[in-house]
Amino acid sequence: MLYSDCASLNDYIIRSQVDAVLWKAELLLAKEENPIVRNDRVADIARTIALLPADKKVVKDDYIRKISTDYKLNRKTFESIVSDHTVIERKKSDIVKAVRKNQVAELKGDPKTFPFFTELITINQKTDEKTFKGIKIDKVRFVQLLGSFGFTRYASEQDLKDGYTFIRVTDNVLSEVTVEEIKDFVEDFTRKQYDFTKCEYVDAYIMLNEYYDKMKTIFSKDLFARMRSEAPIIINRDTANECFLYYQNGFVRITKEGHELINFDKMDGSVWQKQMLNRKFEKIELQLVADEAGNVDFENSFTTDRPLGIFADFVWRICGQKQQRFLSLCTIIGYLVHDYYHYKLKCVELTDSTVSEKSEGRTGKTLLMQLLGKVRSYCEIPGKTFNLDDEKKYQLADRSTQVLHINDVNHKGRTRFEFEFLFNDITEGYTVRKMFQSPFIQRSKMVISTNKSLQIDGASSRDRIIEFEMSNFFSEQRSPGKYYGHWLAKDWDDPEWLKFDNFVCYCVQAFFSNGLIEPETINLQARKLLDGTSREFVDFMNDVRDEMLTNKTPWEGYTMPNTIEFVRPQSIYNFELDKKQLFDRFIVLYPDYKANHFTQKRFTDWLRKYGTLALGCSEIAERRSNTTFYIMFKKSES
User: Fold this and answer.
1) What is the pLDDT of residue 322?
2) Theoretical Cys-Cys bridge with 312: which of 91, 97, 269, 503, CB 3.0 to 4.6 Å?
3) Phi and psi of 242, rounded to 5°?
């Protein structure tokens, strides 16, 4: 092992162990006579010895003895310095390993007998007769009682000014609760658990009546807001290089190197109840086939017996059974599962690949997202009613939402979807407004599904989206249910769920290793052109392109420039076309457009789309000469 292979000198010494410590001692002490420098170097060597594992005590003692003898150090002093540094390193290690937990407010006494109320009793001085007058609830103690059950007010940096909600902390789990749910809990606790045997008059029935009489004061939101945690609520979150999934028997930590199941007692803080998965996890090795070079051969990994599981096979089919596209979708799945937001965020668009003027659908977009909802807290919003102007458009989401899916967005009418209006929601989070609740900002990975393609114009839009075309393997005629012979997820047994969960872990690892991989397109550009213009326009421009290549003119009768510099075009590229002549010719061939008030401006927008999407132009140049407006589709020679 070379020193250059190590992060530091201490790292080299620890990995080399036996003689490296002595080498360091010789390097630092053999020729040094300055006592101040020498003392610092002795401390440095002591720190290195302290880093050795506890089971190396004999080795440590040998180092101390030999170094003390060779360099004339006081052995007891040197031994003491090593001991001090050993204690320091142990404390550092304990700090690193310390697990932070959310603590429920302690209650002095048993909750079942906790005296949070007083019986109001008067005594007749003459007869000693007692009269029950009612109950007085001690509001401070009542709040303390609720706090002992884990109820608390919760506000995070995502809440808008003065906003908060109520949660309940139970072991490793956080649950968002409403005022009504807290009322239900108190009522059930009073009826079923509280011990009234020491009370003279009060029983559960009388106490419930007291609650009902004082509903607006005892069960007010303002009083519940006094339930406050003494320390900030800790939520276990993904990091830049770690992803966590939460199961009934522990949590799974996923990194680039692999994944492992860990006990909950090793987990920092708590996790939202909606993020807990109602099944157990077991690590299994995916049966991937390697080619001669040792690389994964996905094509030969997907055999008829489906060794990787139904979900992996489903992903393979919707990718068109292409290796590059499969790996791309794996990284997209990994990105969506990674609940982390401090890197470049993108919206995922799922669209169809078939070139058609009809909205076919049924390719598996919704099913893919609903299956991801089996590992992440998932919210699906109907795209047809998604109104960008509605301030409550995200009301179906909550504080635990990790993947937000706007399903089947609308392309026409008042609720027509415009991608650029989501820029801030994608990168900074979106505001959730619900009836009778404080608004808050939630961050989620966002997905848009559409049967038609989105018109993504400009660098800002392209930088915020990754587009994936679903193959036409599945359709209305061949649904996943028919192909696999069962309902996906609903009919899975435990072994199938294990394959599903382990494949998801593989996808997260693929994302950590490769980042988001752009998929090879199928028909994306052609579909964008058709969805953004019309079939008639595409046919018209294709004819112009073919005529210019064959006959060196857009059509017979097109008026060419009458200048000395004019050179007859060799193709549609790098030649100035008269916009008005093109428009007039199109209207003559398709008169219905004139009746529908089709304008020159809109036609020019379509020309630009054609240049970008059909011709792949590096630049589209436009200019005016007197009263003539030109457009040129430029293509670089390289």
Assistant:
1) 93
2) 503
3) -135, 145
What is the per-residue DSSP string for 493-538? Answer: -HHHHHHHHHHHHHHHHHHHHH-PPPPPPSSHHHHHHHHHS-HHHH
Instruction: Tell me the angle at which helices 600-609 and 579-589 cross, rounded to the nearest 10 degrees.
Output: 100
Average pLDDT of the chain is 88
Report the amino acid identity of residue 46: A
Name the 3-class secondary structure at 610: helix
**Angstrom distance (rounded) from CA 352 to CA 389:** 27
Is the pLDDT assigned to residue 51 strictly greater than 70?
yes
Would you state the structure tokens that stand for residue 388, as one six-digit string?
A: 């960008």
Any idea what the Cα angle at residue 17 is, between residues 15 and 19, rounded to 5°?
135
Instruction: Tell me how far apart the alpha carbons of residues 554 and 556 are, in angstroms, rounded to a whole number.
Output: 7
d(CA 352, CA 368): 13
* Amino acid sitting at position 491: D
Q: Which residues contact 594 (CB under 8 A, 6 or more apart)?
A: 587
Quickly tell me which residue has 């390289």 as its tokens: 638
DSSP element (H, E) containing 254 = strand 250-254
* Amino acid residing at 343: Y
Instruction: Write the DSSP assignment of 25-79 as a string of letters.
Output: HHHHHTT---HHHHHHHHHHHHHHHHTS-GGGHHHHHHHHHHHHHHTT--HHHHH
Cα gap 627→499, rounded to integer Å: 68
| Structure confidence at residue 78 as a pLDDT band (50, 70, 90) | confident
Kindly give, in sequence order, each residue whose CB lies less than 8 Å from that of residue 585, ignoring residues fewer than 6 positions away.
540, 554, 555, 558
Nearest CA-CA partner of 369 in 347, 340, 395: 347
**Whether pLDDT at 161 is above 50:** yes
One DSSP character per residue, 168-234 reads: EEETTEEEEE-HHHHHHHHHHHHHHT---TT-SS--HHHHHHHHHHTHHHHT-HHHHTT-B-SSPPP
* Distance (Å, whole) CA 90 – CA 8: 20
618 three-class SS: coil
Residue 565 is predicted with a pLDDT of: 59
Phi and psi of 477, rounded to 5°? -80, -30
158-161: list long-range contacts, CB under 8 Å, 24+ apart. Answer: 158/399, 158/429, 158/440, 158/441, 158/442, 158/443, 159/438, 159/439, 159/440, 159/441, 160/431, 160/438, 160/439, 160/440, 160/441
- Report strand pairing: 130-137 vs 117-123: antiparallel
What lies within 8 Å, CB to CB, of 537 at 6+ separation is 586, 603, 606, 610
C-alpha 421/C-alpha 408 separation (Å) is: 17
CA R_g for the chain: 35
Average pLDDT score over residue span 51-78:
84
Residue showing tokens 């989620």 = 444
How far apart (Å, rounded) are the C-alpha atoms in residues 529 and 531?
6
The CATH number assigned to the domain with range 298-525 reads 3.40.50.300
**Residue linked to tokens 């199928």:** 522
| pLDDT of res. 637 | 62
User: Two tokens at 426?
Assistant: 């994608």
Q: What pLDDT band is residue 125 in, cutting at 50, 70 and 90?
A: confident
Q: Is the pLDDT of residue 428 over 60?
A: yes
Q: How far is CA 557 from CA 150, 162, 536, 553, 582, in A?
A: 83, 71, 20, 9, 12
Instruction: Quickly tell me which residue has 């005016």 as its tokens.
Output: 624
Which neighbouring-strand residues pair with 348? 447, 466
In the block, tokens 């320091």 appear at 88
Q: Strand 403-407 and strand 378-382: pairing? A: parallel
